[in-house]
Design brief:
Blueprint: H1 2-13, H2 15-35, H3 39-68, H4 73-91, H5 95-129, E1 135-140, E2 143-148, E3 157-160, E4 170-174, E5 177-180, H6 182-185, E6 191-193, E7 198-199, E8 204-205, E9 210-213, H7 222-235, H8 239-264, H9 266-269, H10 274-288, H11 291-310, E10 313-315, H12 318-324, E11 329-332, H13 334-338, E12 339-350, H14 356-367, H15 373-382, E13 390-395, E14 399-404, E15 407-412, H16 414-418, H17 426-437, E16 441-448, E17 456-467, H18 471-480, E18 485-489, H19 494-504, E19 508-510, H20 515-529, E20 532-536, H21 542-547, E21 550-554, H22 560-565, E22 568-570, H23 576-612, H24 617-635
Parallel strand pairs: 11-18, 11-20, 18-19, 20-21, 21-22
Antiparallel strand pairs: 1-2, 1-3, 3-9, 4-7, 4-9, 5-6, 5-8, 10-22, 12-17, 13-14, 14-15, 15-16, 16-17
C-alpha cells in the first residue's frame, strides 16, 4: 500500500507537469493519425489534448472572469484555440485543430513551471522548520520528560546534552559549552557560552551539558522569526511581476473586444458577408494570440539556464536569469561565502628559543584531548609526530593545561597566559596584536621546563576562517562589469569583517547582524538600487536571500535552507561564476528584447494582412507559427558559451 500512496502523492503534487506531458503526447498522436488519414483516431486524441492540457487554464480564466470581472491571457488562449478548432472542423482543415492544441500545450507548460516555483517555496519553509527538534527534554519535579516544543512555557527548565540541537531560545542557568551558531548568526567560530548567556534554537551544542530556562514562547524564537520572514519575502510579488499581470489582462481585453467588433461591424461598414466576417475574426484571434511573444522569452531563458548548468550555475527560475543581468548592487555574506567556512591554522610565531614546529606540537599534545574546533585545527596542522598530553584540564573560556614529557604546558588566550607569565615579549605581543587586528584568533603556548627560569612563552598560533582565493579577483571583475555597490553583511564581529573586506576590496561592511538585520539591509539597498543580489550560504541568510531581487547560494558550503530559498546556486562554490552569471543574464536580456521586437513585428504584419484580406487562415497560422519558430531558434543562441 506504500507505493500506491506515494504514487498518488506524486501525481497530486506534479499534476500540472503530468498534464503538460500527456497533452504533448496526445497532440503528437493526433498529428500522426492525421498524417496516415486515421481521422477518427485524430478526432479522439486531439480533443483529449485540449481537455487535459487546457483544463487548468480554462478554470483559471473563467474564475477570473466570474469573480474578478477581468479577462486574462488564459481565457484568451482557450478562446483562440477553440476558435481554430471550430474553424478546422467547419472547413475540414484539420491541421487548424493541431494549431489550437499547440496553443494549449504552451500554456500547460507555463502552468507547470509556475507550479514548480510554488513547490520550491513550500520546500524551503519545510527545510527551515526541520532545523529544530520536535521535542525538548524538560525537568518536571526533578524528572526528565520529553515534551513537544509547542507545549513549552516560559520558565520551563530544559536539559541539552552534548551534540544535541538547541530546541528553543533560552538562557543558560547551569553548565558551560561551545555552540556552533554559524547557521543562525554567521559567526565563523563556535562561541563559548556559560551561565547567563542566551542560546538560539537550531544551534548545535558542543562538548558540555547545559540547563536552559525558557524565557520566551517557542513561537517567538529566532528560527521561527526566520521562517516568517522567508514566507513574507517569498510571497511579496515584485513590481515587474505585477506589471506583467496587468499587461496580460489589458492585452486580453483589447484582443477580445477587437475580435467582437470584427464579428459585428464589417458587414455594416465594409459590406463583408457573415462568412467572411467570422473567418477574418477567427483569423484575427489566431494571429493575435501571444504565442510568439511567449516563445520570445521562455526558450531564451531555458537556453540560458542550460548554458549556466554546464558551467556550474544553477538557475532555479527563468525570470531570475534575466534579473541577474540587471543587478546594480550585490550583498555578500562572509562566512562560507567570501571565506571557506573551515577553521585553519594560518600562522605560527615563536620565541627565539623554540621553533614554530615545537610550538605547534606542544599545543597539539593538549588540544588532542579537546573537542573544540580551534583545538582540532591545531592538531590537524601539527601532523602526527607529537606525544599526547597527560593530566589535561580545560579551564572554560580561558584555555587548557597539562603535562607533555613531564613538562607542564599551557595553551590559551592572552588573559589566561598572563596568569602564569609575568612578562610577554614586546615583539611577540606586537605580532599577536597585528594578527588580531586582521580578525584572526590568537592562541598562546607556554611551557614550564621545570628549570629555575620558570614558565616561558613558546609562541602563539593564529587561527582563522580562510579566505577564498578567488574572492578578490571576483570583486574586481564585478566592478568592471559596472556593479555600482558591493557590500558585506555578516553576523561575525566587526573587526573580522573589516579585515576580510579590506583584503577583497569591499568598501561597505555591516557586521554583527541577526537574520532580520540582514533583511533590513537588503530592503534599504533595494530602495536605492532597485535590483539587488544577495550571496549567502547559511540559514541566517535565508530571509535576505528570499527578499533580494536575486538570491544566490553556495552549492557545497550552503545549508539546505539557503539552497532551497535561493534563485541561483553556484554548484561548485566557485565565486568567479557569479560574474559569468551576470554576463549570461545580460545576454539573455538582450536576446529577449530582440525576440520581442520580432514577435510584435510579425503580429503587426499579420494583423494588417488580415484586415486587408491578403491572407487566409492557413497563411495566418503559418505566419503565426513561423514567427514562433523563428524567435525560438533565436533564443537557442544562448546555448553557446
Amino acid at each position: 500500500m506504500l507505493y500506491p500512496q506515494r504514487f498518488r502523492e506524486f501525481t497530486q503534487e506534479h499534476s500540472d507537469t503530468l498534464a503538460a506531458l500527456v497533452c504533448g503526447m496526445l497532440l503528437f498522436l493526433g498529428w500522426l493519425a492525421l498524417q496516415i488519414d486515421w481521422l477518427g483516431w485524430a478526432l479522439l486524441f486531439l480533443p483529449a489534448a485540449y481537455v487535459i492540457g487546457g483544463y487548468d487554464s480554462a478554470r483559471e480564466g473563467l474564475t477570473t472572469l466570474i469573480k474578478e470581472k477581468e479577462l486574462d491571457v488564459d481565457l484568451l488562449m482557450i478562446v483562440a484555440a477553440l476558435g481554430a478548432a471550430s474553424l478546422g472542423l467547419w472547413r475540414r482543415e484539420y491541421h487548424l485543430i493541431i494549431d489550437g492544441a499547440i496553443l494549449i500545450l504552451i500554456f500547460a507548460i507555463s502552468g507547470a513551471l509556475e507550479g514548480y516555483a510554488m513547490r520550491r517555496t513550500e520546500r524551503s519553509i519545510k527545510g527551515l522548520m526541520s532545523l529544530t527538534p520536535d521535542t525538548a527534554r524538560v525537568l518536571l519535579g526533578g524528572e526528565e520528560e520529553m515534551l513537544p516544543i509547542t507545549q513549552l512555557k516560559v520558565g520551563d527548565e530544559i536539559i541539552v546534552k552534548p551534540g544535541e540541537l538547541i530546541p528553543t531560545d533560552g538562557l543558560i542557568i547551569s553548565g558551560y559549552s561551545t555552540l556552533n551558531q554559524a547557521a543562525i548568526t554567521g559567526e565563523s567560530l563556535p562561541i563559548e557560552k556559560t551561565v547567563g548567556d542566551e542560546v538560539f534554537a537550531g544551534t548545535l551544542n558542543g562538548f558540555g551539558a547545559l540547563k536552559l530556562q525558557v524565557h520566551k514562547p517557542a513561537s517567538s524564537s529566532l528560527i521561527q522569526r526566520v521562517i516568517r520572514l522567508v514566507e513574507q519575502a517569498q510571497t511579496e510579488a515584485p513590481p515587474s511581476q505585477q506589471f506583467i499581470e496587468r499587461f496580460e489582462r489589458i492585452y486580453a481585453r483589447v484582443i477580445v473586444v477587437s475580435g467582437l467588433l470584427l464579428v459585428l461591424l464589417p458587414p455594416f461598414i465594409w459590406g463583408w458577408t457573415w462568412e467572411v466576417t467570422i473567418y477574418r475574426a477567427l483569423t484575427f484571434l489566431v494571429v493575435a494570440s501571444p504565442c510568439a511573444l511567449m516563445a520570445a522569452i521562455m526558450p531564451t531563458l531555458l537556453s540560458g539556464i542550460a548554458n549556466g548548468a554546464r558551467q556550474g550555475i544553477l538557475f532555479k527560475n527563468g525570470a531570475q536569469l534575466e534579473k541577474i543581468g540587471k543587478v546594480r548592487a550585490i550583498a555578500f555574506d562572509k562566512t562560507g561565502t567570501l571565506t571557506t567556512g573551515n577553521v585553519q591554522v594560518c600562522q605560527v610565531i615563536s620565541s627565539s628559543e623554540y621553533s614554530e614546529n615545537e610550538v605547534l606540537k606542544a599545543a597539539a599534545a593538549l588540544e588532542s584531548c579537546s573537542e573544540h574546533p580551534i583545538g582540532k585545527a591545531i592538531v590537524q596542522a601539527a601532523g602526527t609526530d607529537w606525544v599526547r598530553g597527560v593530566d589535561v584540564q580545560a579551564i572554560p573560556g580561558q584555555g587548557i593545561v597539562g603535562f607533555v614529557n613531564n613538562a607542564q604546558v599551557f595553551v590559551g588566550n592572552t588573559a589566561f597566559i598572563k596568569q602564569y607569565v609575568t612578562q610577554l615579549s614586546e615583539e611577540l605581543q606586537k605580532s599577536a596584536q597585528s594578527l588580531e587586528n586582521e580578525g584572526k584568533t590568537v592562541v598562546w603556548v607556554a611551557k614550564n621546563p621545570q628549570a629555575e627560569k620558570g614558565i616561558v612563552v613558546m609562541g602563539a598560533i593564529a587561527i582563522s576562517d580562510m579566505l577564498r582565493i578567488e574572492a578578490k579577483a571576483m570583486i574586481s571583475r564585478l566592478r568592471k562589469l559596472g556593479v555600482e555597490q558591493i557590500v558585506m553583511i555578516t553576523g561575525d564581529n566587526q573587526r573580522t569583517a573589516d579585515s576580510v573586506a579590506r583584503t577583497v576590496g569591499i568598501d561597505r561592511v555591516y557586521a554583527e547582524l541577526l537574520p532580520e538585520d540582514k533583511l533590513d539591509v537588503i530592503r534599504k539597498l533595494q530602495e536605492e538600487y532597485q535590483t539587488v543580489a544577495m550571496v549567502g550560504d547559511g540559514i541566517n541568510d535565508a530571509p535576505a536571500l528570499a527578499q533580494a531581487s536575486v538570491g544566490i547560494a553556495m552549492g557545497i558550503a550552503g545549508s539546505d535552507v539557503a539552497l532551497e530559498t535561493a534563485d541561483i546556486v553556484l554548484m561548485a562554490d566557485k565565486l568567479e561564476k557569479l560574474a559569468t552569471a551576470i554576463e549570461l543574464g545580460r545576454r539573455s536580456h538582450s536576446v529577449v528584447k530582440q525576440n520581442i521586437v520580432i514577435a510584435l513585428g510579425f503580429i503587426l504584419l499579420l494583423l494588417i494582412g488580415n484586415f486587408l484580406g491578403n491572407i487566409n487562415l492557413p497563411i495566418g497560422v503559418i505566419g503565426h507559427e513561423g514567427s514562433t519558430v523563428l524567435v525560438t531558434l533565436s533564443g537557442l543562441r544562448l546555448l553557446k558559451n
